[in-house]
Amino acid sequence: MSMIGMSYDLEKSIWTEKDFEIMGWHDSQIYKMALKEDLEFDIDYIFKWNQPDLEGLPFTFWVAPATLVFKKAKILSFDFEIAMEDVFEIDYIERQVEEDKAIWLIVTQRGEIEFTCEGFDQYIRQKPLFQFGQTVPYRERRGTSLERVELQNNSYLSSKEYLEAQAKTFEHYENVKKRHLKRQEMKELNLRRENHQVETKDYLLKKKEINEMIDFYDYWLKGTNFEKW
Predict the structure, then answer these.
(1) Of 35, 83, 191, 193, which one has the greatest count of Cβ atoms within 10 A?
(2) d(CA 108, CA 177)
(3) Model pTM above 0.70
(4) Percent of the chain, pLDDT > 90?
(5) Residues 6+ apart with CB under 8 A from 180
């Protein structure tokens, strides 16, 4: 996989309650929230879960920093187990329509928020970025914000520092895939050994060769985000 030319085809930069049925907030991280006339959240919105390049590896993601605004929220009920300044994740969002009003329920990993409102706007503050995790790093998302802006430019994303870091990240990822293939090769070798399909001498020589390669990749991935992949 190369990062060159990678981009996500974003349909639009503002999403509303009309899009609710095709949206999903599972595992979206909340960085900040505020309640004034509206209920506002600074989140990382996951647009797409990418199937792993190799079976058995973790998913990758397209993620964008977004401001989620529930307009004129009323009759709020909070039930949280953590301090409100702590970072936490959305599990899911429900909408229940009753007569002339909609009741919204935001279920997080730490508690729930229930309220009524006139609808929501979700502002995509930057273009979605390819991520190996479900969040956008601090500098890549321009810190935390509740601004209602669309597709902001982030000069850090074109900086030499960022591009070199990305190149190194993708280099690590290529080593992850190579290590994964060697681990699969080892499993297949052990299975052949159990089924008496390989001679002891050949088995030991091949096992030594594969373990040396796995150790090599372990060495280069030690201390990186991919060490445990």
Answers:
(1) 193
(2) 33
(3) yes
(4) 89
(5) 54, 56, 57, 229
